[in-house]
Amino acid sequence: MSAEIIDGKQIAADIREELKTEVAALKERGIVPGLGVILVGEDPASKSYVSAKEKACEAIGIFSDDNRLPADTTQGQLLERVEQMNKDPKINGILVQLPLPKHIDEAAVLMAIDPDKDVDGFHPMNVGKMMVGEDTFLPCTPHGVLQMLMRSGVETSGAHVVVVGRSNIVGKPVANMLLQKKEGANATVTLCHTRTKDLSVHTKQADIIIAASGWPNTVTADMVKAGAVVIDVGVNRVEDPSRERGYRLVGDVDFDAVKEVASKITPVPGGVGPMTITMLLFNTVDSAKRANGVD
Ligand code: NAP
Question: Do 109 and 163 belong together in one domain?
Answer without folding.
Answer: no
